[in-house]
Amino acid sequence: MKTVLITGCSSGYGLETARYFLERGWKVIATMRSPREDILPPSDRLRVLALDVTHPESIASVLDAAGPIDVLVNNAGIGLFGAFEATPMATTREVFETNTFGSMAMTQAVIPGFRSRKAGTVVNVTSSATLAPFPLVAVYTASKTAIEGFTESLALELQAFNVRVKLVEPGYGPTTRFAANGGPRMQGLLPEQYVAYAQSVFAGFAQLSAVTSPVDVAEAVWQAANDASDQLRFPAGPDAVALAGAA
Q1: Beta-strand pair 121-125/233-236
Q2: How many angstroms separate the CA atoms of 230 and 35, rounded?
Q3: Quick one: which of 93, 99, 56, 54 has its CA closest to 77?
Q4: From first to last of its 247 residues, what are the pLDDT tens digits of the chain?
Q5: What are phi and psi of 87, to 5 degrees?
Q6: What are residue 190's phi and psi, to 5 degrees?
Q7: Is 20 a catalytic residue?
Q8: CATH for 3-246, among 1.10.760.10, 3.20.20.140, 3.55.10.10, 3.40.50.720?
Q9: Does the predicted model carry a pTM greater than 0.90?
Q10: Pairing of strands 164-170, 233-236
Q11: First CA to last CA distance, the chain
Q12: Domain extents for the chain?
């Protein structure tokens, strides 16, 4: 029986991915900053652990409690929507700490075990914002694009040890908590000079007929986790698939 550790499972993609793997007989270690066991079906194959990917001691504690794992899914992330002009550099660093450095730190922590066993897969969840430019998400896109380049290089670096590194690229998901996860850090990021433009962007998103659901992402993560080929990218959702095809 295989074991997957998934970060950012309190809602959205992470929560659905944890359910998806549970339904298919895997042992699941679902992690989140504030653990809640009631959001997932009871199972003797499920553990819910507290994890803050920006704190090295939290990472070490979770991996010690988890024991050997077969797949790491780096899903924890912070959304951010606003004008870059109005975004404090402290906020930019905060987004990178979770979206970029958090994923890198988790990956670095599991590599020794994967390498020694000559087995293991890292799945990094990024965004379709890396496939085509979107306005008013410059910082968020930069944080996810960094993980794309990181993953491309690391996949080659770990090939000799039979360790796979994959990318899942979700499309636009209006049912996720992107804005909610942005939290107070998004306040004040749309000065009045940008309001009319932002409204037109929101209107454009509202008219999209093909969007991404959490199940779309869970299915793509499942495919990536079980893929034995050299395929690197797994677009998730019809809009992301279309963007990937046009790239």
Answers
A1: unpaired
A2: 35
A3: 99
A4: 999 999 999 999 999 999 999 999 999 999 999 998 899 999 999 999 999 999 999 999 999 999 999 999 999 999 999 999 999 999 999 999 999 999 999 999 999 999 999 999 999 999 999 999 999 999 999 999 999 999 999 999 999 999 999 999 999 887 555 555 555 666 779 999 999 999 998 888 777 777 899 999 999 999 999 999 999 999 999 999 998 987 6
A5: -90, 115
A6: -125, 80
A7: no
A8: 3.40.50.720
A9: yes
A10: parallel
A11: 38
A12: 3-246
C-alpha span between 216 and 168 (Å, rounded) = 10
Order of strands, sheet of 3-6, starting from the edge strand that comes earlier in the sequence: 46-50, 27-32, 3-6, 71-74, 121-125, 164-170, 233-236
Which are the contacts of 174, defined by CB distance < 8 A and separation ≥ 6? Answer: 205, 211
Question: Out of 140, 172, 194, 197, which one is annotated catalytic?
Answer: 140
Cβ atoms of 156 and 224 within 8 Å: the answer is: no
AA identity, residue 145: T
Q: In which residue are the tokens 């959490």 written?
A: 214
